[in-house]
Amino acid sequence: MVYYSILMGHESLKTILLHTDPNLRFKIAQRVPKIRLTEKAVPLRIEYLSLDEFRTTVNSQSYTLGVYRHFPTEDIPIRMKNSNDRGGVSWDLDRYGFEIPNSTTPVLNGDVSFRTENAIIIRRDTERVEQHLQVSLRVYENALAKLNQLESEGKTVEEFLAGPMTVDDRRIRLYVHSPKEYLQLRINEFRNDLLPFHYRRNNLSPPFICYIQLTITQGDVRTIQRYLYNQKLYEAAKKFNEILFGNRPVIIVNQLNNMGSWDVWRIPVGLKISAVSISANSGYGDAREIIPISSILDSSKSLRNLSFSDISDPVLSFQHSFVREAEKLSVLSLKQRINMLVNALEKMENQKFHIDLMNHQNPSATYYFQLLQGWMSTERSVDSMLTLGLRTDYVGEEILELVRARNERTESTDRCVTVLRSDATSLQVSYAPLPEEINFSTFLLTARIIKA
């Protein structure tokens, strides 16, 4: 089948590749070297793309890299077995088995970094960590020993807690209610966590061999490939994404998903993405996590939809051109940001706005009306729209009453008020129940500019 496809005309092959699933294109290009240059030259169209430091998801298929620890025997510590079952750990290991924090790895040319200047580096190979592990180990060992002692003496835990206790007894009083199996599990975990300190102190090698594992997942089907651990995990991620996306024209993506993590995207130098929509798994990505993406966006195309939270940095949220030029801008905010949001609405010309509030906030109708006024303070074209997520039917009715009271020429129907304007347009404000709860909102208020 592949043989005959190579004999096709060049233009026919390009047409077929253009309409082929991206994951199948990756596979064909790797197996048939003769068409790699042609495959790279054909625009890549992706419905859904999600990037993380060690995971890339293209449509319904994900590619995950991890460090897999292979033991020559089946006696594998349970925590390591669990991480192996998940595809390996998402960080590098040093020669003694210590975790190398990802926050200490270099940002390479072409990478997109979401790190902050004040990022905390957590090291697990310090003397303080070792002392903490040793103390914790002793507490669990003493708790298990006490349970065994009580069992041999025919006493209950309640009798032990009711009687006079030594200093050591008081240290374990919160742990003796735990099942013995759980205590033994924690003891084993602490002992395993202490092993790298033992290996380093005696210059020993751990009893396992590390591999870089690539796990390809589609639905319930997983394919595993393992490679020698002769490069860092972040270097492997960089090379893998270069295989997928390197030396291509602008990649066309319908939905670019930001995972909402504080890591680094290890992507090829010069990668450009023409995205239709950008959001996070929850629907809203932190502005600090979305702004760095602008460096790889195709500047010749405007976003159709952009969703982000302005909670961390409200000023940064609205100052970038790709935010201001998005056709529809959806924002998750706090009611304390009312003045900032109103100011932003006054200055920005996006065709459509949507605003949601954090779930623990229940603002009054006045809050929403201020947003509506801010949006209306600048000239809006026909079909411009502002939507607001509401918690209750009562707030929606109060907003409509404010619209009626603040405007002279209005027309009302059920859950709708139309304000007649002097420029041959009208402002139509209405609200309706949502088919299902979305971001803790049960009603949606819509303000739209329509022809009079």
Automatic annotation (TrEMBL):
It comes from the Eukaryota. It holds the Pfam family DUF3557. InterPro entries: DUF3557. This is Uncharacterized protein. The lineage of its organism: Eukaryota, Metazoa, Ecdysozoa, Nematoda, Chromadorea.
